[in-house]
Amino acid sequence: METYSVQFANWIWGTPLLILLMGGGLYFLIYSRFLPFKYFLHAVNVLRGKYDDPNDPGQINHYEALSTALAATVGMGNISGVAVAITIGGPGAIFWMWVSAFVGMATKFFTCTLAILYRGKDSAGEIQGGPMYFITEGLGKGWKPLAIMFSIFGLIGCLPIFQANQLTQALQDILFIPNGIKGTQVQYGILHFNTTDLYIGIAILVFVSLVIFGGIKRIGKVAGKMVPLMVVVYFISVIGILLINVTEIPQYLGMIFSNAFTAENYNFTADNFNGDPIFGGMLGGLIILAARRAAFSNEAGIGTAPMAHGAAKTKEPVREGLVAMLGPFIDTIVVCTLTALAILITGVWQTTDNNGVSLTAKAFEAAIPGVGHYILMICILIFSITSLFSYSYYGSKCLGYLIGAERQHYYNYFYVSTIIFGSISSLATIINIIDSAFALMAIPTMIGALLLSPRVKKASNDYFKRLKE
Predict the structure, then answer these.
(1) Which candidate, 292, 295, 294, places its Cα nearest to that of 275?
(2) What is the DSSP letter of 201?
């Protein structure tokens, strides 16, 4: 299974998808005349609630919408995904993650503006947003196959298996194994797992179930409280590590830039290399790797965030698009960069075979001996659990679109049951399953957004004209 998942993920994340995601984002950035950056401070004011109206249509406010979206994106992709990128692509991978994030800000603006501009109603009459709705409402019923494609693969892409896998690994590496709790190995069919992994998976399943069956309003409230805490704790921890090694920061920032075009320090193998001659062999592999990890980190262009932002209480589509564009900045430019510098300056990326969350844990322990990995453990618990909450909402909306809102709650039962699979499976299998699903979600999302981009431009011109007046 692992071999097939790797082969398919490498195939689907080829040159055409890279052009669609990064090329499409660059088009949005230029077409909008760099609008996301010009109105950055206005976006912050909208987020602060300056323009909130409780009587506007929707289910949650701007802040809760961004918190729900960030709860899904500021998660294990920032701790584990960055480590995977550095392990395979070296420091240069981070530069291309930055590039993906900057164009991703424009992509988020367009897709999340569309999520409000073309909100639809589900079978229960509830207002909903997301790629499946803006495709059918904006482009017409003839484009419904694209909306169905997004929803089907959204059922897979929104599964909690990556978060469960890395949370389990972190608990094993930081708490259980050092204290002599190792469990026993079990072979069951094609699965080979540790009994401790199974028990951790069951515990995660129970905890997550208590929250997600409460719906988007409960998720929004919980995420609104946990996301700021998780970002602050992680931010302070990593800043502390960087201050301890402050003299080395310029060296590694320079390495990020210099390695970005030479593909030095890479660790490409037959399984993870998918470079293309059109991009220059190894450099092409580096760019595609970074695009995959950036998409996993900030999901710009994938289409999940428009579902959260589509539930926001607002009559102004452009206003929600501006709030949404803050996501990739917070997620990749700030949080992923902090993680990357912590891994690089401690040197663990060159001295250990660890990957994913285990590598980040090594970096924290090397910088703050004795307590570093425990601090990271607290951050991981909050990061992964909040991600688990948000993705359940996304997946249920996809199922609701396919078979009716009155039956969408069935997704949550399937969702929590896969937590066990995620906890006991290998990282390589899990990450390639999610990467493949994300790629197949991005195709309809980006096609719909590109075709509807003139309408976003028109709405933006109207909004900013009224704002000035």
Answers:
(1) 292
(2) H
Structure tokens at 104: 């991703």
**SS3 state of residue 39:** coil
Q: Which helix (H) or strand (E) holds 191?
A: strand 191-194
Q: How many CB atoms lie within 10 A of CB 198?
A: 18
Sign of CA dihedral 273, 276, 277, 281: negative
* pLDDT the model gives residue 294: 72
Closest CA to 390 of 154, 36, 167: 154
The DSSP secondary-structure symbol of 184 reads -
Tokens 């450099």 appear where?
Answer: 283
Residue 210 CB contacts under 8 Å (≥ 6 apart), including other chains: none
Q: What is the pTM of this model?
A: 0.82
- In whole angstroms, how large is the CA radius of gyration of the chain? 21
Residue 136 and residue 146 in contact, taking contact as beta carbons nearer than 8 Å = no
Name 113's Cβ contacts closer than 8 Å, sequence gap at least 6. Answer: 317, 318, 320, 321, 324, 456, 459, 460
Q: Is residue 76 a contact partner of residue 162, using CB atoms and an 8 Å limit?
A: yes
pLDDT at 279: 43
pLDDT at 278: 41
Share in percent of the chain as helix, strand, coil (round to 5): 75, 5, 20
